[in-house]
Amino acid sequence: MIRIEGLTKQYDTTTVVDDVSFEVERNSITVIVGTSGSGKSTLLRMINRLVEPTRGRVLLDGSDTRSEPAYLLRRRIGYAIQGNGLFPHRTVAENVATVPRLLGWPDERIRARVSELLQIFQLDPALYADALPAQLSGGQQQRVGVARALAAEPAVLLMDEPFGALDPIIRAKAQEDLLEIQRRFGTTVVLVTHDMDEAFRLGHRIAVMSQGRLLQYDRPATLLTHPADSFVARMTGLSDRALKLLALTSAGEAALPGRSEGPRVASSASLREVLSELLWRRTDSALVLGEDGAPRGQLTVAAILARAHP
Amino acid sequence: MSLANLLRLAALALLLSFLLSPQSFAPLFAPLTHYGAPPIYDQGNLLWLALAQLATVLCAAAASTLVAVGLGILVTRPLGAQFLPLSRTLVNIGQTFPPVAVLAIAVPLVGFGEKPTLIALFAYGLLPIFENTIAGVRSVPPVVLEAASGMGMSPGERLRRVELPLAMPLILEGIRLSLVISVGTATIGSTVAAKGLGEVIIAGLLSSNNAFILQGGLVTGLMAVLLYDALVALERRLSLPVSLD
């Protein structure tokens, strides 16, 4: 879907991004994570050419992104940023309609799309379509920012620390919404963050960057079990790596045949959550229920612990 | 109706009634004259003079606006940034050079009449519009510009749809300052035979008629105040509601 080949950005003598190559799968969420100054934002901005690479290239569905003017390329790629950058002089509906307008969609189609998106993001069009961004709360503004990025149904969505300015509760909600939206539209998401927990929560794949170099690009579990070097290991967190690993597996995946009289847990719950529940209730096993409410199997503390190491 | 609106209306009514029927104010101005001199200017139509002055001012302000906003936009583009110091110097000279001196230089070049006044007012009015255009364009938050480019706006679209609308309140403020200064300054145009209320003031000075001087000054002053007020109201309508967050 997105193929990044030897991407390098130099400003004078400083190399901000140094020969980075990796491939982003279609319909997945890839998280680029790194400390500040690691070059992760620059890498993201080279994908939609807000920053022009010094060397290397980006292929989108096999075609070089330099084969069309940058502003036309950007209309095909969603872009959401920290602080959302909503146009303060435009209403919520006008903000969301930005890219469809640039693309010259007919009014009727734009209206329908805006109202669909506002509903998906739990913003009642009757209440919010004509509001100005300043009249919304921070969480609402952030949702409008993402809705605007998705308005023209882009196949790719780039997000630069989109949840950085939100408080923890609203941030958790926004992350859940993103997972939901990504499943619903099948958008390919590339997200930049400095928050490792966010990376583990959202990413199907995680790219760890430091000082302009890509240190490792892998599935989250592999990052924990086989870190490329000590920096990646420290970045992913040595103190709670067993719990992080448990958080990556759902109860449904790990359920064993059999029944249990213990507490009932949803198959979508993570092993970390199930373990916490079992410890709290001082019992040894839990009954896993499918989405339809039917028993899917059982989980014991021993079975969970067996999955907490490589 | 609020007190402010009442005052505005009163000022407008006063101005109009004086311009339409100056003779009915004669008893008010009579104490300021000596030896039976006329209390109301009688060598021209006051309404016509006021309109002529306003027309000169508006023409000059339109030209200043076009040039100053254009320059302001140019020097805030990446390619035009190198012209900022030069433009700023030129515009500053326009403001520092006294309009009277501009008249003195312009008359031999373009002759007597409205033209030298237009040139003087044009040069004098550039600075506030130019500086406010720059300030307005620079006041647009970087994250908003980043979003505009990220959405796929070309530089021109970004300027038209985002930068200029957001800079508009400050640009209007610059135009307002420039206009108000010009209304007053325009009176000196009468020294080089431009039609305007300066004629009334000069006639008063020449014949020691304080009533004339006061009339010319008051009408000019009232026009400036009302113009200022109308533009403030326009700016308010264009500026964004304040966030409650």
Describe this structure as you would to a colleague.
With 310 residues, chain A is α/β, with parallel strands linked by helices. Helices cover 39% and strands 25% of the residues of chain A. Chain A folds into 2 domains: 2-237, Rossmann fold, CATH 3.40.50; 244-305, CBS domain Like (Alpha-Beta Complex), CATH 3.90.1280. Chain A has helices spanning 40-47, 70-75, 92-96, 98-102, 107-120, 125-128, 138-150, 168-185, 196-202, 220-225, 230-236, 241-247, 251-254, 271-281, 301-305; strands at residues 2-11, 14-24, 29-34, 55-60, 63-64, 77-81, 156-160, 188-193, 205-210, 213-218, 264-266, 285-289, 295-300. In chain A, α8 (168-185) links the parallel β7 (156-160) and β8. Chain A is globular. By secondary structure, chain B is mainly α. Chain B has one domain: MetI-like fold, CATH 1.10.3720.10. The model of chain B has no long low-confidence stretch (mean pLDDT 90). The interface between A and B is medium-sized, with 30 and 23 residues.
Determine Rg of chain A (CA atoms, Å): 21 Å
DSSP summary, beta strand count of chain A:
13
The total of helices of chain B stands at: 10
CATH fold naming of chain B: MetI-like fold
CATH architecture of chain B: Orthogonal Bundle
The low-confidence runs of chain B, each spanning 5 or more residues with pLDDT under 50, are none
Give the secondary structure arrangement, pairings included:
The complex is a heterodimer of chains A (310) and B (245).
Chain A: E1 2-11, E2 14-24, E3 29-34, H1 40-47, E4 55-60, E5 63-64, H2 70-75, E6 77-81, H3 92-96, H4 98-102, H5 107-120, H6 125-128, H7 138-150, E7 156-160, H8 168-185, E8 188-193, H9 196-202, E9 205-210, E10 213-218, H10 220-225, H11 230-236, H12 241-247, H13 251-254, E11 264-266, H14 271-281, E12 285-289, E13 295-300, H15 301-305
Parallel strand pairs in A: 3-8, 3-9, 6-7, 7-8, 11-12
Antiparallel strand pairs in A: 1-2, 1-4, 4-5, 9-10, 12-13
Chain B: H1 3-20, H2 26-29, H3 46-75, H4 84-96, H5 99-110, H6 114-138, H7 142-151, H8 155-185, H9 198-206, H10 210-238
